[in-house]
Design brief:
alpha+beta, Uridine Diphospho-n-acetylenolpyruvylglucosamine Reductase, domain 2, Uridine Diphospho-n-acetylenolpyruvylglucosamine Reductase, domain 3, Alpha-Beta Plaits, seven-stranded antiparallel sheet, five-stranded antiparallel sheet, 18 strands, binds flavin-adenine dinucleotide
């Protein structure tokens, strides 16, 4: 049996004979070695399969030569899960970008993993539907990446994450077996739910080659509300108040004072000087009831400390609000190149305690912390603006942030996943039995540990 690295590349070339379907030059592969975590690794090769069979053949070949495989969508992930450590090959889904079938009668769509989230939304909209997960990166990120990270966005508060909006998958396991999960129906209880298991598994269990997405009808009407507060605590209380009443907003986004200051001018937001926090709230539904719904939400947003709460009446106002929200991540990066971006989650009722605790840690460690995010899910993007000389201090501060989140009954990640960035912390949230079971599940899917090894789990945890 051939065993050298050159033998492997020669065999790989026979699987990918076409131009533009395989990269082996180091410089070419470099561009596929990073993600938005700013980590980078040199890929051994990059392959661009076009079919499930080509994925099967690739994984089988990698088993034969014991070569690691990192699946890659658009590389916009923030926790390093698509970085090809351990001399892995990158399996890019760039060429598997087709919408295979739209089935409005059954409210579903079948797609390949490399299609962008935006392309799915546009195609669904032609039939009066949408797919709820909507990361801010939707114009670039892929459905494969969305599923592998269980990525969501503002709409998750009402419509859920990929786990609630995916009916089934076609995949290839780490052993190179074709696997179908789920059903073509919205109800099914046959065996274990492998669909939900693979969603969120960050490319460590199987490579997704096709997904059946559950579509939701577009709402007839939508109202956007802007609420401004004199303190972060007031805004946090308003979030809990809004979620305690019967109308579920379809977006409930939060920005603290530093976040507002960063994007206020760029998005031409007119806000009073004493604005310390802002909520962007959207409600959707049928035309006849929307006015009543938004008034109800405005009433529950009007807690002590509110400066102003009103409906955005023009398209321009709504556009400016969303522009401001979307500009936050890139603006923060420019401000502090070493920023640490976490996406912790706490029960909505604990948001005031989280914000209070973060303010205390910011003062204690002398690290500015900027907070914004999907408050309706209690999912707050906590950004530590770290200067180069503060890196050690920042690590300690981060551990304290996670400890706070766990004390508040929260979770370390709402939508960005674990990857390489957070793998050393998962023991804070998962007990040893859970970690051990998860690692055994991985062994069943991927006996040689070739799919994204050393992602998600700390390398030093034995089972
Ligand atoms: C400006 C900006 C805004 C963002 N906003 C949000 C947001 O609002 N919400 C949010 O949740 N995230 C957000 N993100 C993070 C990121 O866009 C999402 O995590 C997205 O889902 C990643 O998709 P991708 O195609 O880039 O995947 P990649 O980064 O390429 O990969 C992500 C993971 O998926 C795996 N993977 C990819 N394809 C497959 C496949 N076919 N089979 C198995 N595994 C696969 C990879 O191995 C990796 O583990 C944002 C990122 C940026 C840069």
């Amino acid at each position: 049996m051939p065993t050298t690295a050159n033998d492997f590349l020669t065999a790989l070339k026979t699987l990918y004979p076409k131009d533009q379907s395989l990269l082996t030059e180091q410089a070419d592969c470099w561009a596929y070695g990073y993600d938005n975590s700013r980590r980078q690794a040199q890929a051994r090769a990059v392959v661009f399969p076009c079919s499930q069979q080509q994925v099967v053949d690739t994984v089988k070949l990698c088993n034969q030569y014991r070569v690691n495989i990192t699946a890659r969508g658009a590389g916009t992930g923030t926790t390093g899960a698509s970085v090809p450590i351990h001399n892995a090959i990158v399996l890019s889904t760039e060429k598997m970008d087709k919408i295979i079938n739209i089935d409005p009668d059954n409210r579903l769509m079948v797609v390949e993993p490399g299609v962008s989230n935006q392309a799915v939304q546009l195609a669904a909209a032609e039939h009066g539907f949408f797919w709820p997960p909507d990361p801010t990166s939707s114009s670039i990120c892929t459905i494969g990446g969305n599923l592998a990270y269980n990525s969501a966005g503002p709409r998750a508060v009402k419509y859920g994450t990929p786990r609630e909006n995916t009916l089934g998958l076609s995949c290839v396991t780490g052993a190179g077996e074709s696997l179908k999960t789920g059903a073509y129906t919205t109800k099914s209880v046959v065996g274990y739910d492998l669909t939900r298991l693979i969603i969120g598994s960050e490319g460590t269990l199987a490579i997704i080659t096709q997904a059946t997405l559950k579509l939701t009808p577009l709402a007839e009407a939508k109202h956007t509300i802007q609420a401004i507060y004199s303190s972060v605590e007031s805004a946090a209380k308003a979030v809990a108040n809004i979620m305690a009443q019967s109308i579920t907003p379809c977006a409930l986004e939060f920005m603290d004072a530093t976040a507002i200051a960063l994007v206020k001018d760029k998005a031409q937001l007119e806000l009073p000087d004493n604005a310390q926090a802002l909520l962007m709230i959207e409600v959707d539904g049928e035309q006849f009831g929307i006015e009543k719904m938004s008034q109800e939400v405005i009433r529950s947003a009007s807690v002590a400390g509110v400066i102003d709460v009103q409906l955005a009446t023009t398209k321009q106002q709504i556009k400016q609000l969303w522009q401001a929200r979307k500009a936050l991540s890139p603006s923060l990066r420019k401000m502090a190149p070493k920023k640490i971006n976490e996406d912790v989650v706490v029960p909505v009722s604990e948001i005031p305690a989280l914000i209070h605790g973060l303010q205390r840690l910011s003062t204690e460690y002398q690290i500015p912390i900027v907070n914004f995010g999907h408050a309706g899910n209690g999912n707050i993007h906590v950004n530590l603006l770290v200067q180069a000389e503060q890196l050690e201090n920042a690590k300690e501060c981060l551990s304290q942030v996670f400890a706070l989140v766990i004390r508040l009954n929260g979770s370390l990640s709402g939508e960005h996943g674990i990857g390489l960035e957070k793998r050393d912390y998962i023991g804070l949230e998962l007990d040893s039995v859970a970690i051990s079971l998860m690692k055994k599940i991985k062994q069943q899917f991927d006996p040689l540990n070739l799919l994204n090894p050393d992602k998600v789990f700390p390398v030093n945890i034995e089972t």
